[in-house]
Amino acid sequence: MTTHYLDIQLRPDPEFPAGQLMGALFSKLHRALVSHEADDIGVSFPEHRLRPREIGACLRLHGTESRLNELMTQSWLSGMRDHVDVNAVSAVPTQAKHRFVRRRQFKTNAERLRRRRMRRHAESEQTVLERIPDSVEQRVSLPFVQLRSASTGQRFSLFVEHTDPQTQPRDGHFNTYGLSNDATVPWF
């Protein structure tokens, strides 16, 4: 149950755009959640917007008071301390609604899908072109965090969906990005 939260607010920086700093911060959080095998810490982005599409400059962590304090005693924020303000762990307001905050994946690049299919299925370029037309590409209006895969080194966009507020919380587990399809986080 996510009874507590803490906000990590990015400071304005003339050298780095907020999106780049949020990507670095979120990558560090992801590595910390992996190393701690944490499936009980969720995230949300309370400043996210759909128009214009922005993830915002605030990363909110959700969990129990003890679990959040335990995470924050680790050195996972090293290298980011000059770029962030970290609030104290606080209790969630009693009137808070709840939201699912989850990852959404989209087919945004037909050419990349074709190359992948050719590698995986040993199909010719012509066959793949017929199977994957340009029309499969989807336009995405969700905010995202730009990350680099630790395993492949490739950059990718992690699209984040905040669902409509729910009246009741739902318990469940979070993935190593702090996102979940079955657990809600408080929204206030």
Automatic annotation (TrEMBL):
CDD domains, per the entry: Cas6_I-F
Name of the featured protein: Type I-F CRISPR-associated endoribonuclease Cas6/Csy4
Species of origin: Salinisphaera aquimarina
InterPro entries documented for this protein: CRISPR-assoc_prot_Csy4, CRISPR-Cas6/Csy4_sf
Top-level lineage group: Bacteria
